[in-house]
Amino acid sequence: MNKPAATLFHHQKGIAIFGSTGSIGRQTLEVIAQNRELFKLKLLTAHSNHKLLAQQSILFRPEAVYLANPESQIELKKILKPYKIRVIDHDDELYQTLHQVDLHLVVLAIVGFAGLKPAVKILEAGKNLAIANKESLVVAGKQMMDLARKMKAQILPIDSEHSAIFQCLMGEKQEHIEKVILTASGGPFLNYSSREIEKVTLSQALTHPTWEMGKKITIDSASLMNKGLEVIEAKWLFNLNPDQIDVVAHPQSLVHSMVQFTDGSVKAQMSPPNMQGPIQFALFYPHRQMSALTRFNFSETINLSFQPIDLKKFRNLALAFEALKKGGNMPAILNAANEAAVAAVLKNELPFYKISLIVEKIMSHAVFVLNPSLDELEQIHFETIIKSNELIRSIN
Ligand code: NAD
Ligand code: MG
To answer: Is 134 touching ligand 1 by the criterion CB < 6 Å?
Structure first.
């Protein structure tokens, strides 16, 4: 049974969600809606969906809300005028608010590089960070982990693989980790030949066999870049060497990842695929809250299969390992080239199978920087986007 609020937490826990209108943001609100007496939503942000942000605000009554897009911001203000909800004007004011509001945890559910600045600001404010935005860790994992340590802020993973590894590591010692094994559904094209992949359409790439997610991560899952980004994310979250990270295809998406220990024992975390599981785990950590999520029915046959991934066919995964091993600015270059390529695929300006070609070419021409600062990483990101867009235009 769930404990009554008074015994679980002494008072309602303040929560902020950055990117509340997206797939992870909406599912976070569902978890909060099921536990309303335990949480107080203080702050919601999104990019431009003023209608949905207004609906969420009227339902959850946060203290303040913010939209990154100025035009949508004006619309939001009009709708929220009769309600006592502050609409924040500038991102400076948003980041100031992080210092002023009593927050237990900030959920970072923004997609892409745009999540990096908020991630840094959240940690600088000393707030615990429940992170879905893997791209920020890919670009600046070292800086973020250093900042979290300095500010004594906790970083809790929401990505299902990393939540699984985190759960497998509870009660374990760092020196007993031999390797982590990230599972990958393999996306819709796992068993396609390279030639078949060359012919896939955008709508095929946007149809994921086991997960329903935002468009960028759905394309990344089909191209296996998502797994590549997750390999780099795992390095930073769990302080691993590149050769301690393996990836295996597991089409059923029931085992969310595994840890192999120095005595040869392997721990895995399993649950039916639903992101509300890892989101709830992060919101309640270290408590395990009762949930109504689907359970396994072990009286029926459940098949688990694992198969290796062909790195020649899914070049993106090999490129991500290469970027991880090289270090420095290389993961930021990989990420930026991929963001540009995926944006072009979503606009039907680049065929899906050419994503890895763009990423590979951009990486091979990049100027290597061993210890980039956060400012340099930002500059590198935007320069790489420009170069990638030029390359995309030139090959069309
Ligand atoms: P989504 O596209 O559904 O939502 C993205 C959210 O980010 C929206 O609320 C949007 O308004 C906001 N946003 C985008 N650009 C912004 C900007 N410049 N400033 C402020 N807000 C901005 O994406 P999603 O599927 O929810 O994924 C979010 C993140 O979580 C990604 O990094 C993804 O890799 C990760 N993730 C998602 C899932 C999933 O099931 N969807 C699973 C694991 C990890
Ligand atoms: Mg994942």
So the answer is: yes
